[in-house]
Design brief:
The chain is built from 15 helices and 16 strands. By secondary structure, it is of the alpha/beta class. Helix 4 runs parallel beside helix 5 and helix 7 crosses helix 15.
Length: 367
């Protein structure tokens, strides 16, 4: 949800009484409500959530995985412990009888906020005037429902970090070029992995409404939206140099939302699931530096005391917007459901949802 949209949302503030409770009091009340509501309630928790929240998740995973699992539940209430665009996707894929709740409406995503509806429509008009009907839009699932809808009505699809290569290849089979929203790094890393040279990639700057490209337009294949993940962009080449010097035996594994230079110098790069699976399958006493969100890295460290694991950047902060979801907000959401007063329901406009689902379905049908 972009800042202007967020300002227009009517949401309630956490009542003061929840700030007076101890963690143990809140945990006991959450457990009690979960037991009372039973199958009426489903709590998905994203990998980047705090331990205090993830302990109550009925399942954990990445954003699209959680949305799809939620939609398959019989539960009437889906309390999504993640960020706004994830709850939107859950609402788009869920049934009419299901209500999706985000415990704190301030839990947004800086990357998703870097591409809004107005900017994207302006860019599309300029780019299609410049390049004709040669572009297919793709959007990372880490985007707002409005952006997914834009992509859906223009023949494009969503992608995840796991299937990005498959979907970029599909897009370039359909049209001469693609516009990749909103994360330039995932788009660039994916295109390079498919053998597309950097010289055939441009960057669209939505602030200055400008195509950053000095090459031959006829050779342009990939247009990257100038957006990024505020967490993953903070992993640097200096971080890698330090690990190589201090721990020469250590494997470096990073998320493809990191900059191209970081991915190039790492030993492995892949989605959150890929990172988790790789560490799970790694031999005992192996050594790893992980370049992804700190809550997840700390959880992996706790789960693998037989391995030497560190964060690629030990000074990295957890994702600040993910950390908006905490025990007080989770308890408040659950007590609201029990009392018949829903707080912070996420409801995507029907027309937006219909077009966004087109983009999601084009991807899901190829997964």
């Amino acid at each position: 949800m972009d800042v202007q949209a967020l300002l227009g949302v009517q949401h309630q503030t956490l009542p003061e009484k929840y700030k007076q409770l101890t963690d143990r009091e809140m945990e006991l009340r959450i457990q009690e409500i979960k037991q009372e509501l039973g199958e009426q309630l489903f709590i998905p928790g994203h990998h980047y959530q705090k331990d205090e929240v993830i302990q109550f998740a009925d399942t954990s995973g990445d954003s699209l995985q959680l949305a799809r699992i939620s939609a398959k539940q019989h539960a009437s209430y889906i309390v999504f412990c993640g960020v706004h665009f994830m709850a939107e996707t859950a609402d788009i894929l869920s049934s009419e009888h299901q209500q999706v709740v985000l415990p704190d409406m301030r839990a947004g995503c800086s990357m998703a906020d870097m591409a809004d509806k107005k900017q994207t429509e302006e860019a599309w008009e300029i780019l299609t005037d410049m390049l004709g009907d040669t572009i297919l839009p793709l959007t990372y699932v880490n985007s707002t429902a409005d952006i997914k809808a834009f992509v859906g009505r223009n023949g494009g699809a969503t992608v995840t970090s796991s299937n990005a290569k498959k979907m970029v290849k599909w897009a370039l089979d359909q049209k001469q070029r693609l516009l990749f929203l909103p994360d330039q790094h995932l788009g660039r890393n994916t295109a390079v992995d498919l053998g597309i040279p950097l010289e055939q990639m441009a960057v669209w700057d939505p602030i200055h409404r400008k195509l950053e490209y000095e090459g031959d337009l006829d050779k342009l294949r990939v247009i990257l939206w100038k957006g990024h993940c505020s967490v993953h962009e903070n992993f640097t080449e200096n971080n890698i140099s330090y690990i190589r010097q201090q721990y020469p035996e250590m494997n470096i594994i990073v998320h493809p939302e990191c900059k191209r230079e970081v991915v190039e110098q790492s030993d492995y790069a892949g989605s959150t699931k890929y990172i988790i699976d790789t560490i799970n399958q790694a031999p005992s006493r192996s050594a790893w530096a992980i370049g992804t969100e700190m809550n997840l890295v700390n959880r992996i460290i706790d789960q693998h005391d037989d391995k030497h694991i560190v964060s690629l950047n030990p000074y990295m902060c957890p994702c600040l917007t993910m950390n908006r979801i905490d025990l007080p907000h989770l308890l408040w959401s659950l007590e609201g459901i029990r009392e018949g007063e829903i707080h912070n329901q996420i409801k995507v406009d029907q027309n937006v949802a219909k077009e966004a689902k087109l983009a999601l379905d084009r991807m899901l049908n190829r997964s």
